[in-house]
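About this split. The held-out portion is used to measure sequence recovery: a designer receives only the structure tokens and must propose an amino acid at every position. Recovery is the fraction of positions where the proposal matches the reference. Here is one held-out target exactly as it appears in the evaluation file.
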């Protein structure tokens, strides 16, 4: 299994910025990353896509964050970042990091692991 450690959440006023980080690691598995991403879940709502980035650098964003959030990855550090600008109260949610990975000996078998989540609260 691959473990994820998220950081960077907190409380910010509307219009402000936050940067989330997520580091993937494993104590017993040699793994390669296919993609990493961020999802969020607000109270009473379904978990939704925020942004993803592949190991090749391709990105995908949810419609509600396009133009405001930027995802980037550092393959050497197994880390993904989410720069969030122009934050709105509706961005308030628990943000979850996800990694899709594989073993080099079995590259067609992909696995997903999720982080514990980090709270982002945007006040109006």
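Reference sequence for scoring:
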């Amino acid at each position: 299994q691959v473990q994820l450690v998220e950081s960077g959440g907190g409380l910010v006023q509307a219009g402000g910025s936050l940067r989330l980080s997520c580091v993937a690691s494993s104590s017993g598995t040699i793994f390669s990353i296919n993609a990493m991403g961020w999802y969020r879940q607000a109270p009473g709502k379904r978990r939704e896509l925020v942004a993803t980035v592949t190991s090749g650098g391709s990105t995908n964003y949810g419609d509600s964050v396009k133009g405001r959030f930027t995802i980037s990855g550092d393959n050497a550090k197994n880390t993904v970042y989410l720069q969030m600008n122009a934050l709105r109260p509706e961005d308030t949610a628990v943000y979850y990091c996800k990694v899709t990975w594989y073993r080099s000996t079995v590259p067609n078998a992909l696995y997903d692991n999720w982080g514990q989540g980090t709270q982002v609260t945007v006040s109006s």
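Annotator remark: The chain is about 0% helix and 60% strand.
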